[in-house]
Amino acid sequence: MIDLRGRRALITGGSRGIGAATARLLARAGADVMIGYRSRTADAEGVVAELRALGVRASSRAADIATREGADALVAATVSELGGLDLFVANAGVWPVEETGVADMEDERWSNTMRENVDSVFYTTRAAARVITNGGRIVLVSSTAGQRGEAFHADYGASKGAVISFTKSLAVELAPRGVTVNSVAPGWVDTEMVAGAMAAEGRDRINRGIPLGRVASADDIAGPIVFLCSPLARHITGEILNVNGGSVLCG
Question: Helix, strand, or coil here: 36?
């Protein structure tokens, strides 16, 4: 039902986890895809090979998107290689594993989390907004932590709360251009980034805290992202779509 043939997509953090799953699903729907990544060249090239096998154009580019130069270069490469940009998914980010109360949180940790989770979204979205076409779609990946907060991870909660507010601000700003801006807010997701934390927390205990009874897979998050990129979501903008199995119920 979702047909994205002729659409050109850029996904940050696309070499693994949610980003890679989203890239695969966009390609299955017919979109051409550029993957942005930090350092996992072999993983990114593997995903690109999978996408090309589906018959779409696909490329990858390493970039430090927490800098203006890196973000601008990634978007420019997308436009150069794919001929334009219609769909932008800001997925890259970090989750500091160690629990740290704010009274003990070092400046470096706070600054790094904001750099990777907020600055990167700002720089890439700004660059994308300059070139994205009428009818374009922007999807920013936030988190339930940005809605309810997260004790001992105040830096992460604050960074994802910023992404949520940024989403709502841009939705109104870009609507006259026919560009929608939405956010997907996952809860626990079975990815490499949180594997250590899930092991420490106890997967069974985490599952019991989720009404649907299990931690999400990367594909569970990719589906809603692709929906928001599709014509089916053409009248949705400024929305925070919760994908958490019912563990956090908020509007």
Answer: strand
Going by C-beta distance under 8 Å and a sequence separation of 6 or more, which residues neighbour residue 102? 154
Q: Which helix (H) or strand (E) holds 186?
A: strand 180-186
Give 190's pLDDT tier (boundaries 50, 70, 90): confident
Q: Are 156 and 96 in contact (CB under 8 A)?
A: yes
Contact between 142 and 187 under an 8 Å Cβ cutoff? The reply is no
pTM: 0.94
Q: Which CATH number does the domain housing residue 92 bear?
A: 3.40.50.720
Answer yes or no: 156 catalytic.
yes
User: Into how many domains does the chain fold?
Assistant: 1
Query: Domain residues for 215?
Result: 8-243
Token digits of residue 179 = 């560009």
Which tokens in the block code for residue 191?
Answer: 């990815």
Considering the candidates 95, 156, 166, 188, report the single residue annotated as catalytic: 156
Residue 198 has pLDDT above 70, yes or no: no
